[in-house]
Fold this sequence. Notes:
Layout: H1 17-28, E1 34-37, H2 44-54, E2 60-65, E3 72-77, H3 85-92, E4 98-99, H4 102-109, E5 129-134, H5 135-139, E6 142-145, E7 152-157, H6 158-169, E8 173-176
Parallel strand pairs: 3-5, 5-8
Antiparallel strand pairs: 1-7, 2-3, 2-4, 6-7
Amino acid sequence: MNISEIFTSAPTGERCPAERxxxxxxxxxxIPYERVEHxxxxxxxxxxxxxDVLGTRICKNLVLCNRQKTDFxxxxxPEDKPFLTKNLSHQIGSxxxxxxxxxxxxxxxxxxxxxxxxxGLMNDPSHRVRxxxxxxxxxxEWFACHPxxxxxxxxxxxxxLLQKFLPHTGHEVTVVEL
Length: 178
């Protein structure tokens, strides 16, 4: 896996609109970040080396829905924790959770499969997606994710995510125990 040096400013050159928008919003909100560019990383195994360079673990971000596809969730969890739908379903009062189809993910948060990111909530002004964070992620000093595209990763202070980014998007976080 090729991984760049760490940068502290937005990428220049040809980038997808969702990624440009994510960095523009972080800059507008005054949220500092450290970022790297790398080969496409659409699995947590591929993210391990990137996490080592950033100095914090990249979250596993899962877009989930109920069977009727009327309720959608973005789950941010540690990459090494097992995901048991029964456990999560009980905590949030939703049965029969499954992975949301890629087209729903793109329509709701502007991210393609393998690129799901909390930063994609900026693309959900109607608040159709409910943010769920595992307690370990919620209480960590740093939050690392893709900037809505999986050929780059960044880290920000979790406090900035919770106190600046989410209030801007209007999304609240539900803390869960996985």
